[in-house]
């Protein structure tokens, strides 16, 4: 059974600035849970599967089960009341009633995990809503919500929804699991079964394709990457693969996948680099005062295209296995050796084409593909490429080290990890990367998912505290707010990153991130909300 671990690290290849505060990862424990609890988990999964086309988003029931269980096991009923009495003496007579209901709901939740709502007040249509009614409902609401707080002070939860993140993380896992001999840093294969489950059953749309996001229509980007992921995970013939294969071929085959998809397929060995638009690494060598220097790009754009340009510059391709050769023949309507890669370069399926390229974009790409890239590959100018690639790896290592190998997002983390593998498959950098993959994985009743960030702990917590404090019931939820305050206090970034200007970073000392202090990327609005809470409510 899966166990949610909060604010825990462990292992020789994990680093943290504040003892992993806010980190929430799922770990498989074969001895965890009773037979009844395991049966309940399976029942919840079956129920979600039966209605997956009606409601595609989960309710995070597995997390709720575990948080409630932790609270129940921590206290007996008398200990539960005594603990809350010490922290709520001023309103204990009222609070005891709420606690009584809360406790019995928690006990009920332990046996019937789906029942997580306290009894609602029933009012007739003509009944008058009184202040007492509102306060009772509000207390019930906050009591229920506070029961979901993790022991470190934040509220853990799902932050997924983008369907191409799991495939790119699986590509990373493939390189490490199959082609690397790293000791003490193997990827846990127990994660693969719930990944296959969610891709096969829940993410596949009724038309047979996969979308770019969980509620979206099928796209070539989502369909190709998820199809490839299932094949790389060992699936050969099943309903999802059959329908997905037909969907892809009916809409022009994988040659019509958009640019990011072309890059990832090229890395795996399912698409040729000559079918990509040029992402020249030499651009990082131009003077910084020029507006085209990548150091002037938005951070997400810069940090995603940085490893992309490295992989493009090296024309990196992973080992070609029999599985890769087989998938090559499945993704295209003609033989792989007969594909016109020059034509494929500018091909994009209509399902993925949000905005047609402008004339200016066409001119730029034509110049890069027809003139700039060929010239840069001619002697002696081609010596610049090695210099550019070494410079890029310095920036990649800096980004990894300054974020404790979490990355600014899972996209650049996955790309950085491939770059580290291509540089040295047995490097310390790759060993440090691997355990941080788990920071992006989240388990719910629909299966194992990839999150769009390593959480939004600090961001959400600031708003939660403001909501609690706006109710004038602060004294009744003192322990909850105290834990939240400690989390916010301990999540502040306390140091600037070394030599930050050389790597196009702003100062970060005193700021807050979207997620945890280990992430290291300060965010202005997260800082503003956290500072507002610190100065106005505590």
UniProtKB/TrEMBL annotation:
Which Pfam families is this protein grouped with?
SQHop_cyclase_N (PF13249)
* UniProt keyword Repeat, yes or no: yes
Q: Which GO terms describe its molecular function?
A: oxidosqualene cyclase activity
Please give the coiled-coil regions recorded for this protein: none
Q: Which UniProt keywords apply?
A: Isomerase, Repeat
Query: Which InterPro entries does this UniProt record tie to the protein?
Result: SQ_cyclase_N, Squalene_cyclase, Terpenoid_cyclase/PrenylTrfase
Among the GO biological process terms of this entry, one is: triterpenoid biosynthetic process
Q: Which domain of life is it from?
A: Eukaryota
Outline the extent of the Squalene cyclase N-terminal domain. 204-410
Q: Which family does it belong to?
A: Belongs to the terpene cyclase/mutase family.
| PANTHER family tied to this protein | TERPENE CYCLASE/MUTASE FAMILY MEMBER, TERPENE CYCLASE_MUTASE FAMILY MEMBER
- For this entry, the protein name equals Squalene cyclase N-terminal domain-containing protein
- Origin organism lineage: Eukaryota, Viridiplantae, Streptophyta, Embryophyta, Tracheophyta
């Amino acid at each position: 059974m899966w166990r949610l671990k909060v604010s825990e690290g462990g292992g020789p290849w994990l680093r943290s600035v504040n003892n992993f505060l806010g980190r929430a990862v799922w770990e498989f424990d074969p001895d965890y849970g009773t037979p009844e609890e395991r049966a309940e988990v399976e029942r919840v999964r079956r129920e979600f599967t039966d209605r997956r086309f009606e409601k595609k988003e989960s309710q995070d029931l597995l997390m709720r089960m575990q948080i409630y269980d932790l609270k129940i096991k921590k206290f007996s009923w008398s200990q539960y009341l005594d603990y809350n009495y010490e922290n709520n003496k001023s309103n204990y007579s009222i609070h005891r009633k709420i606690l009584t209901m809360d406790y019995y709901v928690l006990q009920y939740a332990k046996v019937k995990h789906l029942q997580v709502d306290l009894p609602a007040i029933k009012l007739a249509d003509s009944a008058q809503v009184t202040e007492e009614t509102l306060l009772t409902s509000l207390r019930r609401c906050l009591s229920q919500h506070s029961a979901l707080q993790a022991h470190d002070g934040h509220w853990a939860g799902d932050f997924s929804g983008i369907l191409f993140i799991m495939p790119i993380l699986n590509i990373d896992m493939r390189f490490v699991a199959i082609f690397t001999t790293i000791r003490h840093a193997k990827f846990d294969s127990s994660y693969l079964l719930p990944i296959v489950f969610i891709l096969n059953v829940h993410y596949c749309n009724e038309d047979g394709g996969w979308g770019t996001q969980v509620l979206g229509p099928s796209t070539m980007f989502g369909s190709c990457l998820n199809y490839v992921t299932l094949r790389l995970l060992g699936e050969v013939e099943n309903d999802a693969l059959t329908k997905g294969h037909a969907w892809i071929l009916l809409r022009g085959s994988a040659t019509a996948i958009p640019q990011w998809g072309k890059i990832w397929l090229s890395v795996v060995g399912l698409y040729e680099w000559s079918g990509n638009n040029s992402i020249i690494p030499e651009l990082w060598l131009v003077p910084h005062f020029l507006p085209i220097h990548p150091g002037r790009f938005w951070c997400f754009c810069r940090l995603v295209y940085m490893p992309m340009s490295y992989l493009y510059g090296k024309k990196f391709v992973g080992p070609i296995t029999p599985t890769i050769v087989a998938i090559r023949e499945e993704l295209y309507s003609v033989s792989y050796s007969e594909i016109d890669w020059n034509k494929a370069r500018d091909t994009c399926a209509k399902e993925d084409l949000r905005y047609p390229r402008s004339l200016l974009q066409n001119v730029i790409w034509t110049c890069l593909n027809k003139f700039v890239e060929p010239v840069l590959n001619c002697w002696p100018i081609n010596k610049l490429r090695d210099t550019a690639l070494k410079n890029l790896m310095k920036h990649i290592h800096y980004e990894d080290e300054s974020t404790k190998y979490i990355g600014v997002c899972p996209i650049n983390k996955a790309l950085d990890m491939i770059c580290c593998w291509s540089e040295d498959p047995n490097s310390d950098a790759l060993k440090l990367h691997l355990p941080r993959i788990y920071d992006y994985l989240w388990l719910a009743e629909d299966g194992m998912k990839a999150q769009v960030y390593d959480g939004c702990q600090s961001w959400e917590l600031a708003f939660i505290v403001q909501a609690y404090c706006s109710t004038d019931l602060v004294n009744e939820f003192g322990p909850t707010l105290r834990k939240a305050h400690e989390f916010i206090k301990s999540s502040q970034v306390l140091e600037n990153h070394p030599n930050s200007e050389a790597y196009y970073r702003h100062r970060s000392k005193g700021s807050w991130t979207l997620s945890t202090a280990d992430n290291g990327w300060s965010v202005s609005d997260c800082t503003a909300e956290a500072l507002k809470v610190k100065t106005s409510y505590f």
